[in-house]
Amino acid sequence: MSKPAWMWAVVLAATVLLGMEHTATASSDHGLGLLIDIMAKDPTQLCSYVSCQEPVSPGTCPNNTVYLENAAQFGCCGACVSFRQEGESCTGNIDPTYGEGYEKSLSTRRVNFLESLYNVSENNILHSSWCDYNFQCFSRNNISFTCIKPEKTCRSMLDNYLNDVVSSNYKSYRDDYRWQPVCTKEGNYDAKQCIGPRDKPRCVCVDPEGNRLFGLAFPEQEELYNTMNCKCSRAAWERKQAGQTTVTLHCQENGNYEPLQCEDEWCYCVDPATGDLYGSRLPESAMHMLPCYNKTLVGGMYLRRCDSELYAHAKLLDAMTDSGVRGPESLVKCDQDGSYASRQCDQTMCRCWDKYFYQSIAHPSGEDCQCAEDVQYYTEINAKITVSCKVNTGAYSQEQTQGNYKFCVDEDGIRSGPLVYNNPDYTLECLYAERCQENGANDPQDYCSRVCVVQAGECPDEAYPGFNSAEL
Asked: Three-state SS for 15?
């Protein structure tokens, strides 16, 4: 393919910028060496010489392509980019979960896309040799790399964890944040998972794929922690998956059933330990006659303020649907205990609120509100605990510092990476910690040893407070 006019213009610009003494080199390699040299020094110099060819915008990209800023014409123009799919050969990852990532390797991208200049289709789509999102560029022999979809089942993570713990790949002073998943016989995640460091675990409720549901407990919450089974949270999730919009199950803080349950104006008792119903079913007006009724906890009305609002809206939608009219979706979000979810959105913005919807605790919210919730809780109990939220959001910053130490946390504030000394020479790669938890030493990228890095490579053993020379 011959070079387009804009490319000759940039080659000429490169010759001018670097000096005429490079003319011989430019003629021998058609100027590509000069361009790479400029891009390594200051690629922005070229952009004033580039007119974007057939400019595109995010909304105009065809299916199976992604619009990326600074992807084409030496990083000066946006482009619709297609990436390699499962089973195709590859040279890298667009998904930051599996390595480079688009934003993290700007200079590498410029060189990679420079090498792809001759692989542009007639409709001006840039074809990358990197794997598409959700695929990993993987090789079992370090020779031929192909795009694969990594297995993320509970069983695969459990096998990786157990294999590493009994081998030299697991170092307790470095990998103590890794936790052992509990799997069902089908290989899915059990409803209750205790995650985080062994000395400070937090138990949470999850769906069969390991995604968080309502319900958590700390070890110091002895009764909630020891009796936790998440049966209510799972049941509510299953009903919602089945399309039931008027789910009014009430769960305890740990995801267990509350003893009294009411649905469609009929009430009954449930054993929180087993989820089994017992006794009679009575109209809601007679719920006080049930043996599980507790006036202090329930009061005179089963539905709390939030799920009462949501329930009424769902009934209205059902009535409108029966009349052939499609009603508006409710914007209010409730937690499974009937209180307001911390993250609430209107037509313009999402904010973090307290569970009673009385006070905004973060504005705007960002992707979630767990950090803002915890800050409010620590303030209320006068606890001297400092956490770092992302700027202008209620979400946790991935990296936290406490005193002389720093570490990675997940979206719930649970430590999800090694504890290291707060030394500016030590850099934490929190995404690598996630990959280590999932794939362990089985991952060819060896993420476990690369969570903490220094300029020269991996962090020394002395970077970890838990290091003990006896473990060498």
From this structure: helix
Residues 30 and 92 in one domain: no
What is the per-residue pLDDT for 34? 64
166 in a domain, yes or no?
Answer: no
> Which two structure tokens, joined as six digits, stand for 4?
């387009």
Q: Which tokens hold the place of 216?
A: 């958590």
Phi, psi of 246, deg, nearest 5: -110, 40
Exposure of 123 in the CB half-sphere (CA atoms within 13 A): 8
Would you state the pLDDT for residue 307?
84
- Our count of domains for the chain comes to 3
Boundaries of domain holding 105: 58-148
Q: What angle do CA 407, 410, 411 make, to 5 degrees?
A: 135
d(CA 190, CA 186): 10
Q: Report the C-alpha gap between 18 and 35 in whole angstroms.
A: 9
Residues 220 and 295 both lie in one domain = yes
Between CA 93 and CA 109 the distance in angstroms is 11
Rounded-to-integer distance, Cα 419 and Cα 403, Å = 12
Same domain assignment for residues 252 and 277: yes
Residues 124 and 200 in one domain: no
Q: Which stretches of the chain drop beneath a pLDDT of 50?
A: 1-3, 5-6, 8, 10, 18, 20-23, 26, 103-118, 469-472
Q: What is the pLDDT of residue 229?
A: 96
pLDDT at 31: 59
CA distance 66 to 108: 18
Say if residue 381 is exposed, middle or buried (CB neighbours under 10 Å; 0-12, 13-18, 19+). Answer: exposed
With both helix axes pointing from N to C terminus, report the angle between 32-41 and 5-18 in degrees, rounded to the nearest 10: 60
From residue 16, alpha-carbon distances to 3, 13, 63 in Å are: 19, 5, 40
Q: Please give the helix or strand (H or E) that residue 433 lies within, else none.
A: helix 430-439
User: What single DSSP character describes residue 274?
Assistant: T
Please report the DSSP string for 110-168 in residue order: HHHHHHTTT-B-TT-EEEEEEEPTT-EEE-SSSSS-EEE-----HHHHHHHHHHHHTST
Give the model's pLDDT for residue 104.
43
Residue 320 located in a structural domain: no
Q: What is the pLDDT of residue 6?
A: 46
Task: Determine the Cα–Cα distance for residues 313 and 327; give it in Å rounded to an integer.
Answer: 9
Residue 320 is predicted with a pLDDT of 79
Domain check: are 76 and 15 in the same one?
A: no
Pairing between strand 125-131 and 77-84?
parallel
Domain-terminating residue out of 301, 325, 341 = 301
The residue whose two tokens read 């790669």 is 429
